Amino acid sequence: MDQQPTLTEAPAVALSGIPHVEGGRRWLLLCSLFVCFFTLLALYCGVLAVLLPNQIATLDPAHKVENLGLMFFVTSIFSTLTTPIAGAFSDRTRSKWGRRTPWIVAGSVIGAITLASVAYMPTFWSITAMWVIAAIALNSMQPALTTVVADRFPEHARGTASGFVGAGMTAGGTVGMIVAGRLANNMPLAYAVFAGAIALCCIAFVILNHDTSSKGEPLAKFRAGDFLKGFWIDPKAYPDFWWAFAGRFTIYMGYQAIVTYLLYILQDYIGLGTDRANIVIGTVSAITFVCVMTSSFLSGVLSDWIKRRKPFVFAASLIMGAALVVPLFMPNLEGMYGYAALIGIGYGAFMSIDMALMTQVLPKDTGEAGKDLGLLTTAVNIPQIISPVMAAQLLKYFNTDYRMLFIAALVFVFAGSFFVLPIRSVK
């Protein structure tokens, strides 16, 4: 078995064979990644946590929990299948614009058009169908954008790059909920803002950060059987890949259970009215924003400095677990604000280091980083399938007692913290 690279073993070129960025172009790429992931997560969190829950509740208030869980279940199936497949095909893309650019542009534009249309859908199933199309497009774009970190940065610099990405994602998610909460009374405008932003920033990204042409690169003949087999990564040969997958999966199971129903938690657990909850979700997000920004940047840079990843991921998941305890003992606004602060610190640190750790547990250099990172992304997507359904069933079984949701999330997050410990190729 080939030895997986350690933290200090920086290859001369990236996983794709593209030269690493240096100097001013490195900082331009870092800032561009921050903006793109900021916008993408603002879209996801604003739509998933605020806009869609409001639409679903308006259609059928009595069954809002079950309907929202069903919508996320259906959508996440398509998202989970799309991500690794799109990543694999981006590895095989040969064009004068490079491997990733066509996917970034097409996915963001199609996703923007269909997302803007969601606001005009009159029924549950029409909303679901249009959001599924948007999610497929956006999840076709995301693995190509994610793989840029592995393509263009050496391993010893990926903590900093991951810190920029993690800060963009977590801060964007926070700002997205604030913006969505403020615009929730005007759905067409709200959806249009997010749709226009993702298309514009992704187009600007590929213009400012030119990909290297892949036109002349050798390409193995496409065989469906070999293509499908490529999605299997042997746990015996690459155990670290699957430990990282398991840790990411369980942490997101816990995190997603709360985020999905945050608006309903404010309404039904804290006792706020709809208008007040839409405003307070922005306040909660603003608190998270401050903590996330500080935590993400400091964790990413500090991780590169001390050349360690695992302690940061472990500590971050423990802090996230502590955040989930607060609302159990303080079922009020103060408790939610405490949750917001701690989840920001923990989740910010987790996101900033998680991306760097993921790039370092990939299988040997096969030129399939897009596919492999796409597989690791399913550790985020699969919880989006299971977690809302699990949460809806828990709430149904325990008569809408949101304490059980916090307890279940706590179990998953604490479990996830221990899956990083067996990883041997990353310190």
Automatic annotation (TrEMBL):
InterPro entries assigned to the protein according to its UniProt record, in alphabetical order: MFS, MFS_dom, MFS_trans_sf, Tet-R_TetA/multi-R_MdtG-like
TM region positions: 27-50, 70-89, 101-121, 161-183, 189-208, 249-267, 279-300, 312-330, 336-361, 373-392, 404-423
UniProt keyword annotation of Transmembrane present: yes
Domain of life: Bacteria
Principal subcellular localization: membrane
Compartment(s) where it occurs, according to its Swiss-Prot or TrEMBL record: Membrane
One Pfam family recorded for the sequence: MFS_1
Matches recorded under PANTHER family: MAJOR FACILITATOR SUPERFAMILY (MFS) PROFILE DOMAIN-CONTAINING PROTEIN, PTHR23528
Protein name stated in the entry: Major Facilitator Superfamily protein
UniProt lineage: Bacteria, Pseudomonadati, Pseudomonadota, Alphaproteobacteria, Caulobacterales
